[in-house]
């Protein structure tokens, strides 16, 4: 009886962690080049774990490195991330025209953000320049740079659930931060790596728009893989039976 109760308790603790999921961006993909003035397309796969968490989803155009992300503009703020979807809009004129741009997805009900890979916004004629930086501040060889809208007056501020406090900003529902785990990947214009779904501070860019810091309520336990969780549950259950 005691063993059964112990196993039930462990499964109750582990189950929410095993089903924890996120919206998964699909487009733009590595190597995508979109000319200013053409149609920019963003697609995503729904969060399979919840029908409410991503019901209201915002998408921001971003630049910067993997830890100091700079908000450029919010392209949409009322998408339904509980369903597979797509959003199209007119690609803005930006400077520089380089492979340094990516999208950030967020929801007022979820402390974690998620990101696309880096892609290129070229000039209306297709002209581009190399990223200003070849290496991330942490040494990772992922090119990056800081971009802005040519017309800063058209910039849309970050979604309202992102609040600014003393020069840095956090998701309004965040309570703590989690460091990127060793299994997280980083956004890149040359590979399928993505920016880590983890702690990442965003900066105010030269357009003067406000910014967002990604925070997470996850802790070290949430970074464990399902296999490790099942192993831990099994070990405790076996011990309880002895």
Automatic annotation (TrEMBL):
Signal as UniProt keyword: yes
Leader sequence segment: 1-21
InterPro entries, alphabetized: Kre9/Knh1-like_N, SRP1/TIP1-like
Keyword line: Signal
Protein name: Yeast cell wall synthesis Kre9/Knh1-like N-terminal domain-containing protein
Keyword Signal: yes
Low complexity composition-biased segments: 168-190
Annotated region described as Disordered, given as residue ranges: 155-190
Organism: Crepidotus variabilis
Domain Yeast cell wall synthesis Kre9/Knh1-like N-terminal span(s) in chain numbering: 28-121
């Amino acid at each position: 009886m005691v063993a059964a109760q112990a196993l039930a308790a462990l499964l109750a603790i582990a189950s929410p962690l095993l089903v924890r999921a996120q919206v998964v961006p699909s487009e733009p993909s590595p190597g995508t080049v979109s000319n200013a003035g053409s149609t920019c397309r963003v697609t995503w796969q729904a969060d399979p774990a919840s029908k409410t968490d991503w019901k209201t989803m915002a998408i921001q155009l971003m630049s910067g490195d993997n830890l100091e992300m700079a908000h450029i503009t919010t392209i949409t703020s009322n998408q339904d991330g509980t369903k597979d979807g797509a959003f199209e809009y007119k690609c803005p004129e930006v400077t520089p025209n380089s492979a340094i741009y990516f999208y950030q997805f967020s929801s007022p009900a979820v402390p974690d953000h998620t990101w696309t890979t880096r892609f290129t916004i070229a000039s209306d004629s297709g002209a581009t320049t190399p990223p200003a930086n070849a290496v991330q501040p942490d040494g990772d060889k992922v090119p990056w740079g800081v971009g802005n809208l040519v017309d800063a007056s058209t910039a849309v501020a970050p979604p309202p659930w992102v609040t600014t406090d003393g020069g840095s900003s956090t998701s309004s529902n965040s309570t703590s931060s989690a460091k990127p785990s060793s299994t997280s990947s980083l956004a890149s214009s040359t590979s399928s790596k993505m920016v880590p779904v983890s702690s990442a501070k965003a900066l105010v860019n030269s357009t003067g728009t406000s910014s967002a810091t990604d925070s997470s309520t996850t802790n070290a336990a949430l970074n464990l893989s399902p296999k490790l969780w099942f192993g831990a549950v099994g070990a405790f259950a076996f011990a309880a039976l002895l």
